[in-house]
Amino acid sequence: MMPPRAFDEACRMVVDYLGEAVPLGAWAVTRVAAGWQTVLVAHDREYGLEPGVGNRWTETMCRTMITGETPRIVPDVGTRPELAGPRETAAALDFRVGAYVGTPIVHPDGALFGTLIGLNREPMEPGFLEHEGLLDLLSSLLSSVLEADTNAVDSARELERAVSDAETDQLTGLLNRRGWDRWLEREEERFRRFGDPACVVMMDLDGLKTVNDTEGHDAGDRYLRRTAETLRRATRHGDPLARLGGDEFAMVATVGPDDAGPLVARLQSVLDAACTPCSVEVAPVGVAAGFAEAVSEADAAMYSDKRARKGSFARS
User: Fold this and answer.
1) CA-to-CA distance for 308 and 300, rounded, in angstroms?
2) CA 162 to chain centre
3) Which residues form the GGDEF domain (predicted)?
4) Radius of gyration (C-alpha) of the chain in whole angstroms
5) Residue 285 gets which letter from DSSP?
6) Domain tally, the chain
7) 130 CB contacts (<8 Å, ≥6 apart)?
8) Is 210 within a domain?
């Protein structure tokens, strides 16, 4: 059940209000996580900003605002040499910025969640600084709504975990197919709301049929349980793990796209060490496309990898 004012709804109200009250080229709320800054909602006139558009955090103007190198309102970015790097990156993308506005949105513990930003192609008059109080007020509002919405989401997740027996695979203790599908359905809207970094990982055991055929199904069951336990130890608490049926497993990892490759390598390494080799592939979850597209991409890549591995085994 959603709270009376969900975070994404509050973000939309804030950027739409600013777009009318303080008309810049674009206003947006962004999420900062896993080394990236990603747009969650935007009121855009000039830049083509939309949900899912992002850039590396180290290449953004917001980074210097957060570190205190530059102020929250810069009427003319050309006067700030500290912004030379981000300006060069923006210019390479044909993303001219003459004036910048930014302020942090924070978690209750003070950790950075993201930013509320405004951009304009041309510099603004120095009197533009008078909007700093309004900016502070609106960013504080969003931080408060974020806290309330996050608490509501955490409570709902705890309740869902408490009633999930019917969604658990009895052999491995992981989610079953039904639990996996319902988890994706429940989390889809939450993920779009907060823009959390995530990747879908699809896995298929290479040797289960051989174990069943040569050692029997009891040995095959032990093989599956060993795989599940290995995956539990190798994943973060709270990241869902599922046995989708037979020898197929899946998970959602709360990591960004830059960490997807190392994640696959680490999973394959620990599974090989447990003598449960597995074909593993991953796809990032986009704010706009969601889980369905990521599942489809990871699944297709995993089966392609499995065919290639079978061919390699046959030639060796």
Assistant:
1) 13
2) 25
3) 196-316
4) 23
5) P
6) 2
7) none
8) yes
